[in-house]
C-alpha cells in the first residue's frame, strides 16, 4: 500500500450524536439534515472513503445545517460499500499520538488486502457515474431559483470538483446548466490533472494541507498554473480560491484530533471555509 492509501485510513473518530435521518434520495441512501421547508439552498456532501458509518461525516453535515439556512444531503455514493471500520481502534485511534508504530503498521498490514480489493470495486468510471447520476436527478428535481453547492473530502473531493465541469452540464428547461453552482474541495485525492480542473464553469474553493502526505501540497500550484494558462489563452475561468492549512495532515477537515489545538483549528477553519464559500455563491 502506498503512502497515499495509508493516509486515507488514519485519523480520529469524533464524539457526538448525529441528528439527521437516513432516507432514499434519487436512488441512494442519504443522510438528510436541515431545512426541508424553505432552504436557502442545498449542500451535497461527498465524504471520504468511510462514508456514512464514520460519525465525523454526519457531524459535519449537522454543523452545516445548524444555521437553519441549508438542506444538507450526504448520500452514500459508495452504495453500501464504504471502507469498513472493523479495525477502527488501529486505523482511527482516539489519540493517534498515543498509538505505537508497531500497532499502527501491523494493523495496516492486516488491512491491506481487503482495502486493495475495495479499490478494484470503486474504479473511477463507475464511481463517477454514481455521483453524476445523483446530481443530474437532483438538479432536475430542484426549482430553478434554488442553488446547489457541493463539498467533497479526500476521495470525494475529486468528484465534487468534476461536478462543476463544463462536460457535466445538462439540459434543463431549454438551457445548459451545471450540475452544481459552487464547489468546495478539501484535501482532494486522486486528481487527474489537467482534466479534472481545466474546464470548470462554477467557482471552486480548495483546501490544501502543508503536511498532507496523500495529497501533495504541490498540487495547489499545479492547479493554479492550469487556471493561469487558461486565462492567458483568453478562456473564462470562474473564481478560484485556495486556502492553506498548517499542519494540515491528510484528513484535516474530517479526521483531525479535536484535542490537539492545531488539528482542532484545521477542523473548525475548514468548516468556516465551506460555509463562507456557499454563503457567497449559493
Give a verbal description of the structure.
- This protein is an alpha/beta fold.
- It has a single domain (3-281), classed as Alpha/Beta hydrolase fold, catalytic domain (Rossmann fold), CATH 3.40.50.1820.
- 37% of the residues lie in helices and 19% in strands.
- The protein has eight helices and ten strands.
- The strands form two sheets. The chain has an eight-stranded mixed β-sheet. A two-stranded antiparallel ribbon has the order 6-7.
- 41% of the residues are buried.
- Residues 1-11 have low confidence and may be disordered.
Name the overall outline: globular
Helix content: 25-40%
- Whole-number average pLDDT? 90
What pattern of helices and strands is seen along the backbone? HEEEHEHHHEHEEEEHEH
* CA gyration radius, whole angstroms: 18 Å
CATH topology: Rossmann fold
Main structural class = alpha/beta
The description of the largest β-sheet is: 8 strands, mixed
Which class in CATH terms?
A: Alpha Beta
* Number of E-state strands: 10
List keywords for this structure.
282 residues, alpha/beta, eight-stranded mixed β-sheet, two-stranded antiparallel ribbon, 37% helix, disordered N terminus, Dienelactone hydrolase domain-containing protein, AB_hydrolase_fold, hydrolase activity
Amino acid at each position: 500500500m502506498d503512502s497515499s492509501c495509508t493516509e486515507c485510513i488514519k485519523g480520529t473518530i469524533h464524539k457526538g450524536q448525529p441528528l439527521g435521518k437516513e432516507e432514499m434520495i434519487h436512488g441512494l441512501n442519504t443522510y438528510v439534515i436541515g431545512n426541508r421547508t424553505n432552504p436557502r439552498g442545498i449542500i451535497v456532501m461527498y465524504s471520504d472513503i468511510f462514508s456514512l458509518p464514520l460519525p465525523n461525516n454526519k457531524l459535519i453535515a449537522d454543523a452545516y445545517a445548524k444555521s437553519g439556512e441549508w438542506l444538507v444531503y450526504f448520500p452514500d455514493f459508495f452504495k453500501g460499500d464504504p471502507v469498513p471500520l472493523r479495525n477502527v481502534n488501529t486505523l482511527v485511534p482516539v489519540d493517534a499520538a498515543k498509538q505505537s508504530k508497531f500497532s499502527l503498521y501491523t494493523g495496516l498490514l492486516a488491512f491491506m488486502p481487503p482495502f486493495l480489493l475495495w479499490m478494484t470495486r470503486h474504479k473511477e468510471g463507475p464511481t463517477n457515474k454514481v455521483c453524476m447520476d445523483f446530481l443530474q436527478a437532483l438538479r432536475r428535481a430542484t426549482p430553478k431559483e434554488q442553488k446547489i453547492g457541493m463539498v467533497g473530502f479526500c476521495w470525494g473531493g475529486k468528484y465534487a470538483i468534476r461536478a462543476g465541469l463544463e462536460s457535466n452540464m445538462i439540459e434543463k428547461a431549454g438551457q445548459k446548466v451545471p450540475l452544481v453552482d459552487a464547489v468546495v474541495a478539501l484535501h482532494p485525492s486522486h486528481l487527474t490533472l489537467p482534466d479534472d480542473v481545466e474546464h470548470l464553469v462554477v467557482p471552486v474553493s480548495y483546501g490544501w494541507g502543508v503536511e498532507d502526505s496523500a495529497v501533495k501540497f504541490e498540487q495547489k500550484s499545479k492547479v493554479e498554473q492550469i487556471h493561469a494558462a487558461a486565462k492567458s489563452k483568453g478562456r473564462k475561468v470562474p473564481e478560484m480560491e485556495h486556502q492553506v492549512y498548517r499542519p494540515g495532515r491528510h484528513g484535516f477537515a474530517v479526521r483531525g484530533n479535536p484535542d490537539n489545538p492545531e488539528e482542532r483549528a484545521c477542523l473548525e477553519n475548514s468548516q468556516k471555509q465551506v460555509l463562507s464559500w456557499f454563503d457567497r455563491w449559493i
